[in-house]
Design brief:
Helices cover about 50% and strands about 15% of the residues. By secondary structure, it is of the alpha/beta class. The structure holds zinc ion (ZN). Zinc ion (ZN) binds next to strand 1.
């Protein structure tokens, strides 16, 4: 995958629908029968006023020249729109709920609209990849949960086919299937059938993305074991396991955010992890503040903390297991949904920093590949001082980082802009972070070998 002496630039973290440019999507959806009700409800809840989407679409129909810029402002996610994962998700929801994915018929049967839309979208995104000069890109697609198995197989095969069709000799497009965290096992079963039948050769990885705080890492353990077993039995169709983790942790405590990254790496044995922001963000970014988590989350944390007490203690983190057990027995009497508040003062922030170092030490020792998407994190986490960005701690401590664009359409960015941003922050050449061919899913899964 190299072109003469020039190494290949690869985007290993890019979502299909998040890669769409605003004007393209406006043209695509204008005049179509759409029902963006859930998007409009979410907008109303967030901003306490109706969404301007329909009015913008009507202006487009009337050939209003200024509508493209207004639509772009509604579509793209910039610093002014954040911070927060839910605010970001609202921008992604605009696409999802106006796309063929939102049609409930798609759960029951292959739809004409999806069959027409997906090839156009992948062509458009692949065209952006070629324009950016990428040698390869892995594109992630999430299908709705609850599809009939035959429909899911049809859709994955279509996705695979579209990636193959969009690939050229100078820019390979591979697919990654983003599965639902709550329906992972049935979704994987359908995808595995499709892979085994040789219908999805263009899908090289399985991802878990979207809202991560609503499920537990352990819930993904059965599916991760099935994926690793599948790979051992089907080396020609093996897939890399990539997991978004530690990206959003607004509704849990900082220790739990770190624990989830540790659990993901230890339990799921992923080939790459996405973001892991909590492991590297400067504690000053959060500053003195209060947050909360459920009793259920805390109980899980207490069990984990007791299990890893020795390792934490060796790293200078004070762990009082007797105290933790006492807290546990008290909490077991309470409603697991109740929220527990925790104030992060300077002492707790210092301890958070120590725990981050402990976790980064493990990530480095395991040579865990971490996908860092600079702008995405900057805007979703609302990082105003770039020195607080997690990419610094990761690179300072020599962790294995690859750069990704995440949702270049929503963030109005490109992989080379992402690389230039980090180079500007670091004052050093960072191109190698976009050229790690060995971090491609094809190689990590063992399907292809580097020669
Ligand atoms: Zn992502």
């Amino acid at each position: 995958m190299s072109h003469g002496s020039r190494p290949t630039t690869i985007d290993l973290h890019r979502h299909v629908y998040g890669g769409i440019a605003a004007p393209w999507w406006l043209t695509h959806i204008a005049g179509r029968r759409i029902n963006p009700g859930p998007y409009e409800s979410a907008w109303l809840r967030m901003y306490d006023q109706p969404s301007p989407l329909r009015a913008l679409l009507q202006r487009y129909q009337r050939n209003d020249q200024h509508v493209i810029e207004d639509f772009r402002r509604l579509f793209e996610f910039h610093q002014k729109d954040g911070p927060g994962f839910e605010r970001f998700q609202l921008h992604h929801d605009l696409i999802t709920w106006t796309s063929a994915l939102a049609d409930p018929q798609l759960l029951r049967r292959p739809t004409q609209r999806f069959a027409e839309e997906l090839p156009l979208v992948i062509d458009h995104v692949a065209e952006q990849c070629r324009r950016e000069g990428l040698g390869a890109a892995e594109l992630r697609l999430m299908l709705p949960a609850g599809m009939r198995p035959a429909v899911a197989r049809w859709a994955w095969a279509l996705f695979s086919h579209c990636c193959g069709q969009a690939s050229t000799t100078s820019c390979r497009i591979d697919g990654i299937a983003s599965l639902s965290r709550s329906h992972a096992v049935p979704q994987w079963r359908d995808l595995a059938d499709c892979l085994r039948a040789g219908e999805a050769g263009g899908i090289v990885g399985v991802d878990f993305s979207h809202r991560e705080e609503r499920s537990r890492i352990q819930d993904l353990l059965p599916v991760s074991e099935q994926i690793h077993a599948f790979n051992a039995q089907n080396p020609r169709h093996a897939v890399a396991l990539v997991v978004h983790v530690g990206e959003s942790y607004e509704g849990i405590c900082l220790e739990s955010a770190l624990r989830r990254i540790h659990q993901a790496v230890r339990l799921l044995r992923p080939h790459r992890i996405g973001h892991a922001v909590a492991a590297g963000i400067a504690p000053q970014h959060h500053g003195v503040h209060e947050r909360s988590e459920t009793v259920r989350e805390r109980l899980e944390h207490l069990t984990w903390e007791c299990e890893h007490a020795d390792s934490l203690t060796q790293h200078g983190i004070a762990v009082d297991t007797a105290q933790l057990r006492h807290e546990r027995s008290t909490l077991l009497q309470r409603d697991p949904r109740q929220r527990l508040r925790r104030t992060y003062d300077h002492r707790l922030l210092e301890e958070f920093s120590q725990r981050q170092q402990w976790l980064r030490h493990i990530l480095r020792r395991q040579q865990q590949i971490i996908e860092v998407c600079p702008t995405s994190t900057q805007r979703i986490a609302g990082i105003r001082d770039h020195h607080h960005h997690h990419v610094h701690a990761f690179l300072d401590e020599d962790l294995t980082v690859v750069l990704g664009s995440d949702d270049p359409g929503l963030f109005a960015t490109t992989l080379s802009q992402e690389c230039a941003l980090v180079e500007q922050w670091r004052g050093e050449d960072c191109r190698h972070l976009t050229e790690r061919v060995g971090a491609c899913s094809r190689y990590l899964s063992g399907r292809d070998t580097l020669s």
